[in-house]
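Below is how a single chain appears once it has passed through the pipeline. First comes the sequence as given, then the structure the pipeline wrote out for it. We keep one example in the README because the format questions we get most often are answered faster by looking than by reading.
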Amino acid sequence: MKEASVFRESLDLYNNFLDSVRKVKYDEITNCLVDFLEDNENKKPKIISLGRGRTGLSGISGLQELYNHLEETPYEFVPYSMEKDPINRHIRRDDLVLVESGSGNTKETIDDFKKALEVEANCIAIVGKENSTIYECAEEQGIPILLLKSERKKENDISSPMGSEFEFKYWMFHRCSTPEILNKLGLSSDSYEKRFDIYRRNAECLHEIKDENISEWIDRLTNRYGIFVFDGVDQSGHVAEQFEMRFRHLGYEPFMYKDSNRKVFKKGCCYIPITGSGNTEDVVKRARDDAIKKGADVMPITANLDSEIAKIVRDEKDLLYIPILSEFQESLKNYSSDDRISPPNGYKPRIPFFETNAYIVTNCIVAQIAHNDGKLTKFMEHMHV
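Resulting structure:
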């Protein structure tokens, strides 16, 4: 069994990244979003995330969380993602466009940005570097800019490879800015700072994870000859997809379980569902009726040790437990993704505390696997598509 020192170093690094999100100058960006929603009250306007890859997933994840809170209010909007459907002819003058890129030089995002400028759409730029095409263009056009600069001292540090810092900070910006936007719209919620403080305390729970549990889980995960199938619903699905992308960069053969008609499982394969409650019906059914019956291993990531998914695993060491603050444990256990479709009385959208901790842990796991396999950042950049 290998040690987990890189996992631990990476966890400390992500806590530092998290601390920097507290200092972000968010007012101009949240005010722009609020003004746009107020100007388009009862019109259901479109807000478009232009980011690609993991940046795009952070973008659409944040928009979907905001949408969940604004659905069936006068400020309801349509969240749209170029990562999911990259056809820039969908950009219209009445849209709000989030121009997201860690490098500030992503070609597809720049092309979409030009299209947005051509049709005179409203734009906000979110970048990680000042000396970049998107930053300079936005500055020239007088477009609001959110700058999430790198804090790393080692540019090629495997503890946070290939834009992971920017993607995580952007994920966290959305998590903290959503309640701020709700407040500014006159809907009761936390402030940016208060929500950040909760996320900060929640992340502290991750220090409860034992090195031997991580190293054992990683060994059991990677010591195989089959493919890796990642899965998740709603916000957990975004975490799963980002994890899957990094596995591809590590040189493994992964994919997301998106097509229920695709027969993928066989002996030697591994199904990795991410579910906070551990009771997500579709995920539990796929684990029980598809993966296990075909001889595949099930290695879930969850915050509920008493869940249905926990009962399915062949060995308790196959389950990776993600600790979260105790005050959110009970609501998570009772949560069902089906509630989004047919909301019960008193329903409120769940805040993604589990998903954020799972996001951090999966990134740290990627760093440890890269170290175990002798993969450097340059290798992952070569595998990046």
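Residues 5-204 form a domain with the Rossmann fold fold (CATH 3.40.50.10490).

See the next section for the split statistics.
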